[in-house]
């Protein structure tokens, strides 16, 4: 395994490596960094970050002078699966988990002699697309949050596709940058209005509010039913299929197309401005000044990807590759999404990105743990996978929610293929890690075709990147260097940066050139081109086996059949008849 350690002494940052797999903590985790006796005012102004992800909620506290992570608390958030393909979370549990994390982090800060008054702002980063609806009069959720992974809206998507003149899911891409897919919020909201009586009634009585998780949190934290702010930031809005990328506002045509009343939508804000002050919770009175962004856009900021052509890949429950396209809206020809990267202030330009999204990466590790019991903790997968030198021809395509970029096939389902009597659980564990890497290569290939300039290296972040074997496999499968910051908390750091940069707060200034001052580990490829391409070709073959699995009429599937697939059943039939005739003669 080749690892180069690169560190700059230009401005030493006290960066902390936190060994957590994002979303896989089974219990509450609290961390505080004891600095010994000293003057803690050296930390300067502090900025908090709420990181509400698919699997867990966290509150992290950063020193704005050094980007140092001082303390955090993390708690797992439970998902429920009422039916096949359905994934939900309790909005109240999401909110209470955030408050709990804030309280515990502040409690741990007593050891650091930090006064809450030193916290100048709080930013939010959140799971995107997840859809919440609530009653603005009572403040109560009208239904569980429908998580971005949820696929219950497949029939809704099919209906919208059938209603387009072109009979295609690309009908709205020119406006919102997205294909019509179960992934995005508009179809989830449409399903709720059509299928949940309480939601339908609240819409009719003008009591219903819709938002992604950022909107739900900020509405409650700024007063709730007593004047809470119903707002969202532009990056989260760009994931709904309702935002016009060019006008940067809710689009009347899109709302009409998806049958969404505009009265339920939050006001769209920039990613870095003072939205208001926290009314409830342990930091009451502190400005909330940066939803900053959906979680993947926050990671782009945290990685200092401010230049056109910069890119990063985040490894968490899913996997998300973002490529900064500057102030230009670039529509992909290769299955990628066009999204807002960030808008760091109301008077600042909007920066866009191409994005490749993979639904199941870290979630596949969780599946090995919770469903198959192959491992007892997520961190064990590295040790188990390292027991074998290869996956021995085993390929795992975890299409649990269909295939996202670059395929966008909702009818695909997962496969583990290439099994023999030689296969053991270590091979399956290694194939799971390789699946993450192969899916990333598919995204990178599509991005290179769209942008025309192949990346020379890939910046990475997210909880799964603490896995050194995964990072080495990624370098081997891509054939380029993989660059990992020694502090992987770039998503939360990006939220804190946006909050600290907001006009009126201004305790944090960052520039793209600061990237050279960040400590990194670099993983170099260690396999030859022939082996790499052969391995990848086998993966692509496995992906094809997942296609068109969930269709209504199996007999009418237009799937290729080899001659052996046709001859085999014929020989079986004739063989059975012959055996029957022989048996009758023997009687």
Automatic annotation (TrEMBL):
Keyword Transmembrane helix set for record: yes
InterPro entries (UniProt xref): ATPase_NBD, Carb_kinase_FGGY, Carb_kinase_FGGY_CS, FGGY_C, FGGY_N, GK1-3_metazoan-type, Glycerol_kin
Pathway: Polyol metabolism; glycerol degradation via glycerol kinase pathway; sn-glycerol 3-phosphate from glycerol: step 1/1
Membrane-crossing segments per the record: 565-583
One annotated GO molecular function: glycerol kinase activity
EC main group: transferase
Chain ranges of the Carbohydrate kinase FGGY N-terminal domain: 47-302
Domain (Carbohydrate kinase FGGY C-terminal) ranges: 312-502
SUPFAM superfamilies documented for this protein: Actin-like ATPase domain
A Pfam family hit: FGGY_C
E.C. number(s) listed in UniProt: 2.7.1.30
Biological processes annotated in GO: glycerol metabolic process; glycerol-3-phosphate biosynthetic process; triglyceride metabolic process
Reaction catalysed by this enzyme: glycerol + ATP = sn-glycerol 3-phosphate + ADP + H(+)
Keywords: ATP-binding, Glycerol metabolism, Kinase, Membrane, Nucleotide-binding, Transferase, Transmembrane, Transmembrane helix
Entry's family note: Belongs to the FGGY kinase family.
Protein name from the UniProt record: Probable glycerol kinase
Organism: Pocillopora meandrina
């Amino acid at each position: 395994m080749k690892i180069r350690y690169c560190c700059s002494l230009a401005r030493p940052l006290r960066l902390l490596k936190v060994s957590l797999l994002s979303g896989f903590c089974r219990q509450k985790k609290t961390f505080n960094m004891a600095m010994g006796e000293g003057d803690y005012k050296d930390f300067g102004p502090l900025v908090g970050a709420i990181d509400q992800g698919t699997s867990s909620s966290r509150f992290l506290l950063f020193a704005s002078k050094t980007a140092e992570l001082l303390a955090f608390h993390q708690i797992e958030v439970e998902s429920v699966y009422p039916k096949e393909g359905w994934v939900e979370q309790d909005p109240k549990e999401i909110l209470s988990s955030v408050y709990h994390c804030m309280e515990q982090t502040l409690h741990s800060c007593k050891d650091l002699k930090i006064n809450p008054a030193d916290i100048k702002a709080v930013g939010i980063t959140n799971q995107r697309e997840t859809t919440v609806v609530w009653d603005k009069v009572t403040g109560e959720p009208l239904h569980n949050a429908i998580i971005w992974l949820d696929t219950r809206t497949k029939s809704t998507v099919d209906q919208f596709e059938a209603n387009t003149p072109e009979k295609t899911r690309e009908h709205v891409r020119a406006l919102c940058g997205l294909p019509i897919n179960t992934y995005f919020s508009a179809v989830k909201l449409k399903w709720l209005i059509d299928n949940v009586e309480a939601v339908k009634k609240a819409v009719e009585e003008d009591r219903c509010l819709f938002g992604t998780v950022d909107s739900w949190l900020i509405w409650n934290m700024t007063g709730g039913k007593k004047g809470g702010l119903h707002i969202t930031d532009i990056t989260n809005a760009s994931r709904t299929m309702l935002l016009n990328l060019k006008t940067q506002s809710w689009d009347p045509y899109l709302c009409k197309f998806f049958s969404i009343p505009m009265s339920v939508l939050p006001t769209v804000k920039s990613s870095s401005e003072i939205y208001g002050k926290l009314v409830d919770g342990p930091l009451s009175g502190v400005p909330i000044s940066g939803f900053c962004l959906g979680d993947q856009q926050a990671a782009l900021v945290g990685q200092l990807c401010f230049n056109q052509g910069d890119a990063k890949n985040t490894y968490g429950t899913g996997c998300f590759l973002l490529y900064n396209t500057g102030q230009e809206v670039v529509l992909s020809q290769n299955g990628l999404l066009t999204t807002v990267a960030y808008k760091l202030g109301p008077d600042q330009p909007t920066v866009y990105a191409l994005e490749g999204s993979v639904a199941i990466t870290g979630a596949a590790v969780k599946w090995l743990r919770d469903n198959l019991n192959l491992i007892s903790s997520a961190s064990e997968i590295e040790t188990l996978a390292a027991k074998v030198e290869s996956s021995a021809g085993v390929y795992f395509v975890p299409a649990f929610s269909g295939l996202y970029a670059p395929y966008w096939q909702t009818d695909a389902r997962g496969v583990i293929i290439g099994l023999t009597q030689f296969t053991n659980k270590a091979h399956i564990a290694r194939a799971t890690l390789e699946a993450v890497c192969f899916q990333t290569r598919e995204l990178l290939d599509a991005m290179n075709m769209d942008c025309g300039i192949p990346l020379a290296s890939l910046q990475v972040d997210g909880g799964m990147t603490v896995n050194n074997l995964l990072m080495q496999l990624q370098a081997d499968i891509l054939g380029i260097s993989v660059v990992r910051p020694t502090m992987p908390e770039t998503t939360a750091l990006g939220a804190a940066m946006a909050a600290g940069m907001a006009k009126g707060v201004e305790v944090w200034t960052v520039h793209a050139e600061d990237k050279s001052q960040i400590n990194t580990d670099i993983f170099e490829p260690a396999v030859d081109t022939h082996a790499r391409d052969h391995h990848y070709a086998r993966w692509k073959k496995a992906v094809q086996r997942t296609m068109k699995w969930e269709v209504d009429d199996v007999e009418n599937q237009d799937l290729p059949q080899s001659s052996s697939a046709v001859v085999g059943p014929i020989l079986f039939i004739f063989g059975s008849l012959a055996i029957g005739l022989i048996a009758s003669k023997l009687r």
